[in-house]
Amino acid sequence: MSETVERSAETLGPPAGKPGEGSGLGAFLKRGGLAFLRQREASIFVVAVALVIYFKIAAPAFTTKLNLVNVSQGTAPYAIIAIGEVFLLVCGEIDLSVGFIWALSPFLMQYFIDFYGIPVVVAIVLAILSGALIGSINGLVTVTFKVPSFITTLGTSFVIFGFMLTTSHAQARGLPAAAVGIGHWFGTFAWSEIIWCLALVFFFQMVLTRTRWGLHTIASGGNLLGATEAGINVARIKVGNFVITGALGALAGILEAFKNSTIDPSAGGYTPMFYAVAAAVIGGTAMAGGSGTVLGAFLGMFVLAILSDGFNLLGISSNPYQIILGIAIILAMISNVYLTRLRRTGRT
Amino acid sequence: MTVEAQEARSPVPTPGDDVLRVEHISKRFGAVTALTDVNLYLRRGEVLGLLGDNGAGKSTLLKILCGFHQPNAGRILLRGEEVVFKSVDHARSLGIDVVYQDLALINELTVFHNMFLNRERVRFRLLNNRAMRKLARQYLDDMGVGIPTVDAEVAKLSGGQRQAIAVARSVYSDAKILLLDEPLAAMGAKEAAMILDLVRDLKEKGDVSVIIIAHNYGQVLEICDRVNLLQHGGITFDKRSAETSVQELNDIVIAEYRQALRERHRAPQG
To answer: Which residues of A are less than 8 Å from B146 in CB distance?
Structure first.
């Protein structure tokens, strides 16, 4: 197999290009620029930087500490649940119920503390585990009965919402006195939400791109049958990603309750979930499954938060923000499709 | 195992020499019966060609042998011991690897991630991309597959290149039994020669046994020691390649087709 091999190696496949053509700073920048543009997060990163510059010039108050806290708090909780939605979208699923887990979890924390006398830290952990448990139900129903996750989680949305309203009598309440101290770690301190968010974004970006779990998540969404044939336990991957999303939803809800110093039955709901999905899509995650980025979703949410905040600073009503948001989602999707095609045709 | 030694053996197989033995396997999918009673044996170092019409159940049989499907009845003996494959992973851990007809490649992943799909190299729980990249490059070079970069997404590749990657993935998995479902389907003449060379190499090494599904009888007889024909849910024909010919195989399949046609015409209308 020596001669045939050499011959076929030359004839099979397109000829390899000549990397490293040209030299000097110009060529280096060009190569670096191309490598940057090849990244899925590139377009949304450029948009984010441009918006920061624009609002800094148009509204000097944009970079005051108070305003940056606003932007960070407008980004963090949504970006946290967007992490989960990215994992689900990549493996071909979606969770509509995560915003209701968000609403329920601070109530669960309060029940555990006030009704069962459970220590605060344990109660918070239990509330997050409850979110994970709800996620596992979402996942198990979806994979066991082959119900589309859109429908499964639509159903559980109502169930969770109803459970929360029934047990809380739809009454808002303050935080348990015992929990106030520890709240600084969980949302009371102005920067705590964004610190949680960045740590989670970094961690889960690693999980998605550098671990077997992430690779198998991509494989499950990219080619379900192929992944199964390769011996990947697709059901385990999907259920696991619902569990992650549920836990993140519960954490986001607790952070928001501490930030607002109140446990409110009207918190959460579909709106944060749709923001999270929008952020994921704007950031470069494909609804059809098989590709996505946690970092992109974070940047996507950051852009949405900047837009909302910047409009406010410029004195524009927040109403047209919805128009911008809608157009941004559609434009992002169009550019996504286009960029993917560009990557595939091998011109990068 | 030399050719003479194989020639000298009696046509009735002695169980000790069989690396794989399938007895009375049947498989139903709901109301459809894919396999009724399959008996098959594979000897150590042997290349067995599995022929049959479209829909005869060849792929189903291979998917049972690799642990993807579980049979409804019958038993499988691996190196003389009865086994029940719980999953693809389980069969793989026992040294059986498969190239599926649909290749089981993930378009969105790179060539090297596909080549190590579900058997990734890991360091401290993180993917060891450097090691996988290097090995993938080495395997493809050994095979003579011309792919400019193993960092390309497989969606970018041609049909033949994709097939070569799927074959390379199994061949270099250290499997002792290789199941190849139409490995030549999307291949041009050169690429097909490359795969056939690869199988010939394996045969020379002597301890890997192969079952190949293919439609080109010429290629099958060239590369296989023995051919089996799967018809009506069972093996109806078992001959050494030297004892049969393209003509005979063609005649059998055409006769089956004519027979089926006659029966359809004879069937009462309405």
So the answer is: 8-13
CA distance A83 to chain B (A): 19
Q: With a cut of 60, say whether residue A6 has pLDDT above it.
A: no
SS3 B46: coil
Q: What is the mean pLDDT of residues A229-258?
A: 97
In chain A, residues with a C-beta closer than 8 Å to the C-beta of B158 are: 13
User: How far does B147 lie from chain A, in Å, by closest CA?
Assistant: 6
**Consecutive H or E run containing A27:** helix A24-38
Distance CA B81, CA B107 (A): 38
Q: Point out which residues pair with B32 in neighbouring strands.
A: B29
Sign of torsion over alpha carbons A143, A145, A151, A156:
negative
Structure tokens at B235: 């093996």
Cα A277 to Cα A49, A95, A153, B185, B215: the distances in Å are 21, 9, 14, 41, 47
pLDDT digits (tens, 9 = 90+) for B54-88: 888 999 999 999 999 999 999 999 998 999 999 99
**Inter-CA distances, A201 with A84, A111, A237, A242, A332, Å:** 10, 30, 19, 17, 21
pLDDT of B163-204, one tens digit each? 889 999 998 888 999 999 988 877 778 888 888 888 888 888
| ipTM of this complex prediction, to 2 decimal places | 0.86
> Model's pTM, two decimal places?
0.87
Please name the member of A8, A14, A231 whose beta carbon is closest to the beta carbon of B148: A14
- Ordered by where they begin, the domains of chain A are 41-344 (1.10.3470)
Question: What's the pLDDT at B159?
Answer: 86
pLDDT of A86 > 90? The answer is yes
pLDDT in tens, A138-161: 999 999 999 999 999 999 999 999
Domain boundaries defined on chain B: 3-266
Taking CB atoms and an 8 Å cutoff, what residues of chain A touch B122?
212
> In this complex, how many residue pairs, one in chain A and one in chain B, have their CB atoms less than 8 Å apart?
122
What's the mean per-residue pLDDT of chain B?
87
CA A82 to chain centre: 2
B89 touches chain A (CB under 8 A): yes
Helix and strand counts by DSSP (H, E) for chain A: 14, 0
**How many angstroms separate the CA atoms of A97 and A155, rounded?**
8
- CATH tag for B3-266 (out of 3.40.50.300, 1.10.12.10, 2.40.50.140, 3.30.70.3040): 3.40.50.300
Q: In whole angstroms, how far apart are CA A26 and each of A37, A107, A347?
A: 16, 58, 20
